[in-house]
From TrEMBL:
GO terms for cellular component: plasma membrane. Residues 41-290 form the G-protein coupled receptors family 1 profile domain. Keywords: Cell membrane, G-protein coupled receptor, Glycoprotein, Membrane, Olfaction, Receptor, Sensory transduction, Transducer, Transmembrane, Transmembrane helix. The keyword Transmembrane helix applies. GO terms for molecular function: G protein-coupled receptor activity; olfactory receptor activity. Odorant receptor. This is Olfactory receptor. The chain crosses the membrane at residues 27-51, 57-76, 97-118, 130-154, 197-225, 237-260, 275-292. Its main location: membrane. Belongs to the G-protein coupled receptor 1 family. The gene is OR8B8.
Length: 311
């Protein structure tokens, strides 16, 4: 009965970021620009890590996957979002909406776990360098990656399966620029109690577990850094960690702000602004934060370019 009713709404209309006409074109070009930067930054990093054999280490194995995730999930969201700035009505079909929801959740949850795998990798490299090659062997890295995508798949399936069983009202205007959990729940005619429970449990896990892992890793790293004798070594390790912590705080902070609060406290318009951080800003900043401050990547960049020019 639920499935038949739930498909009674065959399409949704995405309200977009703002309904003010004078902002549509400036925002269109702003987000188009950020999407181009995101695609170039992440694909550039993927290509560079793939081409340079000296970057085939655990740290870059995870960075490769982080860039792949960032590229994929900004592609799931941004092109459809850009449509809302230039079309009168940004319509998305019911299957299209559920597909976008599933892939957005799959990539965003995978991102939170790959960030914790990267923090663990840095912890082993800095705190236990002697056992690093054994502790982060290719088998361990593959298992960690399997866990990352496994958690992404499980979380996305849980949320999407709960969403598909709902019946949506005739008013199919979704107050967001994408099919996200909370704006869709607002449009449901049936009780969303189970869905809200799943959001609290699954999002709590998907933000809680990685956040604890990351902050414990970085706390141990920082205490280890403070014991480094040379000021040069200390400042190098500190600058690497600080950039990672900024990226992680931005990602998890905006995610927690959006999902882990009673909906009455935060109107969806503010929610849309906070979700800009984890959907648009973070995928654009990650390649810059994780690579520009990195000596290996700079060397690889020079090599790649010099190969091109001399060939």
């Amino acid at each position: 009965m639920g499935a038949e009713n739930s498909s009674s709404v065959t399409e949704f209309i995405l309200a977009g970021l703002t309904d003010r006409p004078e902002l549509q074109m400036p925002l269109f070009f702003l987000f188009l620009g950020s999407y181009v930067v995101t695609v170039m930054g992440n694909l550039g990093l993927i290509t560079m890590i793939g081409l340079n054999s000296h970057l085939h280490t655990p740290m870059y194995f995870f960075l490769f996957n982080l860039s792949l995730i960032d590229f994929c999930y900004s592609t799931v969201i941004t092109p459809k979002m850009l449509m809302s700035f230039i079309s009168k009505k940004n319509i998305i079909s019911y299957p299209g909406c559920m597909t976008q929801l599933f892939f957005f959740l799959f990539f965003v949850i995978s991102e939170s776990f790959i960030l914790s795998a990267m923090a663990y990798d840095r912890y082993v490299a800095i705190c236990n360098p002697l056992v690093y090659t054994v502790a982060m062997s290719p088998q361990v890295c593959s298992l960690l990656l399997l866990g990352v995508y496994g958690m992404g798949f499980a979380g996305a399936m849980a949320h999407t399966a709960c969403m598909v069983r709902l019946t949506f009202c005739a008013d199919s205007l979704v107050n967001h620029y994408m099919c996200d959990i909370l704006p869709l729940l607002e449009r449901s005619c049936t009780s969303t109690y189970v869905n809200e429970l799943v959001v609290f449990i699954v999002v709590g896990m998907d933000i809680g577990v990685p956040t604890v892992t990351i902050f414990v890793s970085y706390a141990l790293i920082l205490s280890s850094i403070l014991h480094i004798r040379s000021t040069q070594g200390r400042s190098k390790a500190f600058s690497t960690c600080s950039s990672h912590i900024i990226a992680v705080s931005l990602f998890f902070g905006s995610g927690a702000f959006m999902y882990l609060k009673p909906s009455s406290l935060l109107p969806m318009n503010q929610g849309k602004v906070s979700s800009l951080f984890y959907t648009i800003v973070v995928p654009m900043l990650n390649p810059l934060i994780y690579s520009l401050r990195n000596k290996d990547v700079k060397i690889a960049l020079r090599k790649t370019f010099s190969k091109k020019f001399f060939s």
